[in-house]
Amino acid sequence: MMSFDWSSLILGLAIGAATSAVFFAGLGLGMRMALRSVKPVAVLVLSAAIRIAALLGVGWIVVEQGGPWSLLGYAAAFVIVRFISLTVASVSTPSGGAQ
C-alpha cells in the first residue's frame, strides 16, 4: 500500500495552480487575439496547442519529480482554478449578453 505524501500533494497543488492560471490567462489572450484576427481558427488552434503542450509538459515534470500524489494535486489545482475562472467570467459578463 502506498503512503500518503502531503508534501508531494502540496507541491502539485502549488505548481498546478500557477500553471493553470497561466493556462487560462493564455486562453483569454488567445480568444481576444482570435476575435481581432482575419483567421480566428488558426489563432485558436495554435493557442490551444501551445497551452495544452505546456500544461502537459509541466504536469509530466511534476509527476516525475513528485510522484503520483503530486499528480493528484496538480489535477485538483487545475479543476479548482477552472472553477474559479468560470465563476469570475460569468460574474463579469453582463446578463443577456448586452451592455
Automatic annotation (TrEMBL):
The keyword Transmembrane applies. The chain crosses the membrane at residues 6-29, 41-63, 69-91. Keywords: Membrane, Transmembrane, Transmembrane helix. It comes from Litoreibacter ascidiaceicola. It holds the Pfam family AtpR. InterPro entries: AtpR-like. This is F1/F0 ATPase, subunit 2.
